[in-house]
Design a protein that fits this description.
- The chain has helices at about 5-10, 35-45, 65-75, 90-95, 110-115, 125-150, 155-170, and strands at about 50, 60.
- The chain has a two-stranded antiparallel sheet with strand order 1-2.
- The chain has 2 domains: about 5-110, no CATH class; about 125-175, no CATH class.
- It has 7 helices and 2 strands.
- α6 packs antiparallel against α7 (about 155-170).
């Protein structure tokens, strides 16, 4: 593990910029209670952000839904390919010696090879069939929260709901999901 002075940490730091007071790479930003209003303001005033990095290439953040839709449709200009750094804030080469293709880290036509087998899982009939199971899972999670009287949304709702959805899609027991 690197300390704050190690080269890996320096490489991952963004370059301070007084003209860009909101550092989207700062983990402390994402703990702020006004995070949603910060992002709302950025979407209205500066929906595309360049973040240069110390000893790094830097990265773009695209913050509005409309612009994200444009980016996703134009992989010739906006690549998610793992061979070009993928979709991570950090280059994959900084994280692993052997980057590999995943559905989110490939561009067409490679991306289509990953997506095609999953398409039936998201067709209207399959989604409709899953609704009762999803509602039952949501009710169970809400019931557990009601008994406790409080909840951490990520730990008590988002994680178990998502993990349950994935175990359903993969046709494995829910007990094999997140614990």
């Amino acid at each position: 593990m690197d300390d704050d002075t190690g080269p890996s940490t320096l490489h991952r730091r963004s370059v301070a910029n007084p003209d860009r007071p909101t550092d989207l790479k700062d983990p402390d930003l994402h703990l702020r209670s006004d995070l949603h209003s910060i992002y709302q303001n950025l979407r209205q005033t500066a929906p595309v952000q360049w973040t240069p990095e110390v000893q790094g290439r830097g990265f773009w953040s695209v913050l509005s839904h409309e612009l994200v839709c444009e980016v996703v449709k134009n992989s010739a200009v906006f690549s998610s390919d793992f061979r070009r750094g993928g979709v991570r804030i950090f280059d994959l080469a900084d994280v692993t010696q052997q980057p590999r293709p995943l559905m989110l880290t490939t561009d067409p036509p490679d991306h289509t090879c990953f997506r095609r087998p999953l398409r039936p899982l998201f067709e209207a009939e399959a989604v409709e069939k899953a609704v009762p199971r999803l509602r039952a899972r949501a009710k169970a999670l809400i019931g557990a929260i009601a008994r406790k009287g409080k909840a951490d949304f990520v730990l008590d709702v988002a994680l178990p709901f998502s993990a349950g959805l994935l175990t359903d899609l993969l046709d494995v027991p829910q007990s094999d999901g997140a614990h």
